[in-house]
Amino acid sequence: MTDLRDAPMPVDPAPSEAVPALPTGVRMGSDVSFVFRLRPVLVTAVAAALAFVCFCASIRIGDLPMSFGDVLQALVGAGDEVNRFIVNDLRLPRALMGVIVGAALGMSGAIVQSISHNPLASPDLLGISSGAGVAAVFLITAGGTAAGLSRYGLPAAALAGGLVTGAIVYVLAARGGMDGIRLILIGVAVNALMHAVITWMLVRADMRDVGAAKTWLVGSLDARTWDQIVGVGAVAAVAAMIALGASFALRAVQLGDDVARGLGVGIGRTRAVLLIAAVVLAAVSVAGAGPIAFVAFVCPQVALRLTGLSSPPLVSSAVIGAAMLSGADLLTRTLLPDYLPVGIVTSAVGGPFLVYLLVRQNLKGKR
Known about the structure:
- With 367 residues, this protein is an all-alpha fold.
- It is built from 13 helices and two strands.
- A two-stranded antiparallel sheet has the order 1-2.
- The protein is globular and about 60 Å long.
């Protein structure tokens, strides 16, 4: 009989698969640390380069075509005086507004989809864009454009309408604790109500005002001014900084309420701050260019698939949004006839993508 103490010790079999390498952690001081992932950085860099190319091409193309060298010289204050006037006073505001609005919509959509845990959620779905549309259509049909209020009054009214609508949705959804499904259902109801109000105002309005209101409701970057750029850019920058500051706590909230509480994260405060930032970003984008559809819905999902992360990244979604809107505006000015509004191009891209997501969700549900 063999003594167990003399038997050879069992040897663990060799692992059949190599253990994947962990992401590199970076620590700055004693309070700040983050994980460095190469793939999201590369995706963001490529999207930023694409947005910059579309930005320069949008400035270069026009009744007086320019080379990229002339555009770059004019941007830094060098080159011919006529080129500097065309670039800085006529074409640059439109191109800049496209970048700002696209980035704001992309980040706003990423925040809403992360909070609601639903890839189909977006500020459009929550009624923020239609709420801004109600205020703008009311101003147009009440004679605000004829009174000279269209330059400043229309963006201000749209911003106020989006903020009020976002506040209504938040107050109704936050009763008894914020829940993603309840947030979406209330947003859909408010969105339907706002669309009904817009239709009612258009039916009762003068036909000349109806044409102006419908043009604004499609979304366009035509005739942007430096005053609008400064106002929209400043508000969007503040809201984006607040959202990025709260994004570290958002990652803990995405792990679940119990885990977030265990890590010392204030769940209600984090969701409130992020949702307010998302509402401001969506409202200010509508104030700058009208309700441009599907950018806030498509860009976070594209960023999610390209980066391979578990939730839509805020920075990558913003950069992809800037590239998408700049590219769509460039497309309307080059290949499409009659200078179509940029909102029609984004709807043509976002509609099929929405159908793809719905079919994919349906197939996953049947498995």
